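User: I want to check something. If I give you two sequences, will you return the structure for each one separately, not as a complex?

Assistant: Yes, each is folded on its own. Here is the first sequence with its structure:
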Amino acid sequence: MLREAAEEASAGRPGRVHVDTVDIRQFDQVDEGMQAIWAEHGPLTSVVNNAGANFIARTEDLSPRAFHAVTSTIMDGSFFTSTAAARRWIADGLPGTILSNLTTWVWTGSAFVVSAAMAKAAVHSMTMPLSLSR
C-alpha cells in the first residue's frame, strides 16, 4: 500500500520515489537499507528524522517494554539513520543535511508522554552537536 501511494503521489512529477521498509530500531537493517540506496540510486542529500511513537498512558502505568518500544523507535532510529547516512557522506566527501522533527514536549512537557518526550529530547541533543561537526 505504501509503495503504491508513493508511486501515485509522484506520478507526473519530476524525480522518483523509492520505498523500502526497515525496522529503524535495528542498526543492521538501517545500514543495509542505506547501502542499498547508495548502490541502487546514488547518495542521499538529506535525512529527515521523523520517527514517532507513544503509548498514551500515565507514567506509572507504562511498562518497561512499552517505554523501550517508544524510546528505541524515536531515539535509536534517529541515531542509526543519521549515522548510517553521515558515515557515507564523510567517506565520499559529500555534504549532507539532517533535519530532526521534534515536539514541543521537549521544552514544555505534557501529560502521558514521558517516554516520547524523553526520546525527542535525546534526538534534539544528538542533532545539535551534529550540526557543529565537520
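And separately, the second sequence with its own structure:
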Amino acid sequence: MQPLREVNALLQAGRRGSQHPYRLKNPRGQHAIAVGLDAPVHVTIEGNVGYYAAGMNKAATVIVEGNAGPGVAENMMSGRVHVKGNASMAAGATARGGFLLIDGDAGARCGISMKGVDIVVRGNVGHMSAFMAQSGALVVCGDAGEAFGDSLYEARLFVRGTVTNLGADCERKDMTHEDRVRLEGLLTAAGIADMSAEDFTLYGSARRLYHFHVDHANVY
C-alpha cells in the first residue's frame, strides 16, 4: 500500500457524487485508514485495520474485509461502515449518525456515548456496551456482556441473546409497534433475513439519572 498520508489525501479528495470505487490492498493493520471522508465515495479495504479506521466518516461507504482495531467509525456523522470480521473496543464511539455493521463480535464499550448512529452487531458485544449512549440504536444479534447500557440516556438497545447484567439506569422495556418497525428496518439494512423483531428484547433508560436525587444515590 502507498504511504498512509497519501492514501488518506487521495480518498479525502474524492469528488462529490463520484461512483468510482477505491480498493486498498495490504493495509497491514495500519491505524487511521480512510478517516475524515466527507463525500459519497466507496472504499473497500482488503485486510485488517488498526485504530480508528473510518473515523469521522461523512457520506462515504467504507468496507473492511477483515478485523478492525479500537474505535472503528469513531465520531461518524453519516454514511455506512461495514466490518466483515470482528471489531475491537469502542466501535462506533461518539458517532452522531450513519450506519455501522459488524459481521462478527464487538469488544468492550461498543457504542460508547453514541449520539445518533445505528449499530448492528451480528455476534456478541463486550462489557459496558452502549455506556452513556444518548440516541440512536444498538442491535446485538448475539449476547451482551456486563453493565450493558450503563448510564443510558435515550438510545434504544435490542438484544437477541442473553445479557450478563444491566448497568445503572438501564432496564427492560416493552417493545412498541414503532420499535418493531425500526428494528425490522435495521435488520433489513444489515441484510439479515433470518431474524425478526420478535426474537429481540428491548432495553432503554429508566430515567432516574437525569437529575440528582438522594433516593437514587446508590446508582450513581
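Because they were folded independently, the notes below concern the second chain alone. Residues 177-189 form the longest helix (13 residues). The first strand starts at residue 21 and ends at 25.
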